[in-house]
Every structure is written in structure tokens, then in C-alpha cells.
């Protein structure tokens, strides 16, 4: 299936079921296709609607790094650290802390 076909399928599924994994998958598809602003909008929506979805924060932070918006990336990593710790997700917390430290060096 082509990227555009996969994206259309994900968007259709999302319309039927506003699920955090589907929002995340749509954001990643837009990111892969180079549509950074649209990907950003989906990551922001994901954080707004499903703030406990831990996986968002690392990937959104990395996208912000690519955009050279380092201050926002650090903010997202900090927010993600709080969410990951609250969820007891030590692996995600470790990845987020490492990503944050790499920007603060």
C-alpha cells in the first residue's frame, strides 16, 4: 500500500474511532511524507486529547528538534517525563531524559 493510501486508510479509521494510536499513526505518516506542520498539528491534538499517551512525547520532541525548535522540544520532553513517571514507564522516562539531556549539553 502506498503512503497516501495508508494515510487515507488511517484518516478514515480515525474519523470512525478517535483513538490515540490512530492519531499517533497519522502524525507519523505526515511526518514521513515531509508534511511537518500537519504532523505537528496531529501531535498537538494527541497531547490535548490523550495527554497520558506516553509515546507521543518522544516522537513529537524529535520532530521539534528537526524543526530546530529546541526550547519547545525540551518542554515536550519535560512534560513527557512527568507522564511517563506517573505511568510507571521507566523505559520511556529514560529515553525522554536522554533526549532532553542531549539538547541541554
Set down the secondary structure blueprint.
Blueprint: H1 3-16, H2 20-32, H3 36-49, H4 55-66, H5 70-87, H6 90-104
Helix pairs in contact: 1-2, 2-3, 3-4, 4-5, 4-6, 5-6
pLDDT under 50 segments (min length 5)? none
**Roughly what percent helix?**
over 70%
How big is the Rg?
14 Å
Domains (count)? 2
Question: What does the largest sheet look like?
Answer: none
Q: Quick one: overall form?
A: globular
Structural class: mainly alpha
SSE string, helix = H, strand = E? HHHHHH
Instruction: Describe the oligomeric state of these chains in a short phrase.
Output: single chain
Count the DSSP helices: 6
Beta-strand segment tally? 0
Please give the alpha-carbon distance between the first and last residues. 41 Å
- Portion in beta strands: under 5%
